[in-house]
Amino acid sequence: FVTPLSVAALSEEQVYTDLFSLKDETEMGHIRLSRECDLIVAAPASANIIARMANGLADDLASTTILASDKPVMICPAMNPQMWENAATQANIETLRARDIHIIGPAAGEMACGEIGHGRLLEPDVIHKAIADFFSTGKPLAGRKAIVTSGPTQEPIDPVRFVANRSSGKQGHAIARALAALGADVTLVTGPTALPDPGQGIKTVRIETAREMLESCEKSLPADIFVAAAAVADWAPLEYASSKMKKTSDTAMTLSLTQNPDILSTLSKPGPRRPHLVVGFAAETDDVIANARAKLARKGCDWLVANSVSAANPVFGADQNQVYFFSSGTMEEWPKAGKDEVAKNLAIRIADFFHCDTVKNAAE
Ligand code: C5P
């Protein structure tokens, strides 16, 4: 519908279309095109160009420019809903996401072909806003507030003993840093760990018990993002002995426990103070996928990141993590990676969520 001439006339810029045009190559050349820009935007990005990008093809000017570029790339998908939902397109999108390509849209609605679903190109002003946001700070989560929980909790039995678990806090701290690196204003609520405060402007609140963690999280509301990465102790001693408990002649000892409040479920409850995006974690020893799905529904969070903590796959204290990512209808197996890398991928996913959301709101 739109000819190169109309784009050239309106933009007052030269339009390049042909990889093998002698004129274009002498005037600009695809390598300069790919380098002399701050951002490449593919809009509309058809299923075809997405597939070619995912596979590194370079068979026309657009795909060659993208492949030859060292600049950030943003794509605005537009296609028939079945094409968008096709497993091949979704796998290609995942590949591009893993390469830090920004995916903006698509919107839902009526297509040119008359079908209804996901696949509409976002409105031009919405794409323009996404580009402006990208450049406004280079920090897509600027202006967003995040609360991250991390580490174990310790539930005191007496002044010297406590109930706790083996969480090191490495994954939660890495998530706080990754969100801060993307510009979020982060409060990290952490149980006792051997880790230093992460810095980067992150407000770190050190607590010991689950109740204190809940209190600090609630005090830090309102927030746009809540990530519950802490391994909160499910039970606390029913009674606290204010003096050190003495060994008696009994060979057995019974400790009565009471259930702790569930911080994730509490903050996931619908209401005006519910963070816009709530992400839970699940460490499972068996049936990771089935248990994680059930947990996502039970806790009321939006996303869940699950990992297996079986003896064959130690996670507590390790630097690597292999996780499954669940949102309402999807499950993805992320490759085993450093906890920093997993955190970065999650933070990018969160930034994409807010961009799509901002863009969606602007479109409405
Ligand atoms: O139920 P489970 O402990 O396996 O759920 C794990 C998720 O719930 C994690 O995100 C953890 O931070 C959160 N959680 C919580 N408060 C609890 C128990 C778990 O926020 N008391």
From the structure above, extract its key features:
364 residues; eight-stranded mixed sheet; binds cytidine-5'-monophosphate
Give structural notes.
Helices cover 36% and strands 21% of the residues. It is an alpha/beta fold. The strands form 6 sheets. It has an 8-stranded mixed beta sheet with strand order 10-9-6-11-14-15-17-18, sandwiched between helices. A 3-stranded parallel beta sheet has the order 1-2-3, with helices on one face. Strands 4-5 form a two-stranded antiparallel sheet. It has helices at 4-11, 22-27, 30-35, 47-54, 61-67, 81-85, 87-98, 124-137, 170-181, 210-220, 263-268, 288-299, 339-363, and strands at 40-45, 73-77, 102-103, 107-110, 116-120, 145-150, 155-156, 162-163, 185-190, 203-206, 225-228, 235-237, 257-259, 277-284, 303-308, 320-321, 323-326, 331-333, 337-338. The chain is elongated and about 95 Å long. The protein contains 13 helices and 19 strands. Strand 4 and strand 5 form a beta hairpin. The two termini are 25 Å apart. Cytidine-5'-monophosphate binds next to helix 11 and strand 14.
- Counting DSSP E segments of at least 2 residues, the number of strands comes to 19
Proportion of β residues?
A: 15-25%
What structural class do you assign from the helix and strand content?
alpha/beta
Task: Report the mean per-residue pLDDT as an integer.
Answer: 90
Profile the largest sheet. Answer: 8 strands, mixed
- Rg value: 25 Å
Helix amount = 25-40%
Distance between the termini: 25 Å
- Order the strands across the largest sheet as they lie in space: 10-9-6-11-14-15-17-18
Instruction: List ligands, each type once.
Output: cytidine-5'-monophosphate
Query: Runs with pLDDT <50, length 5+?
Result: none
Shape: elongated
Number of helices: 13
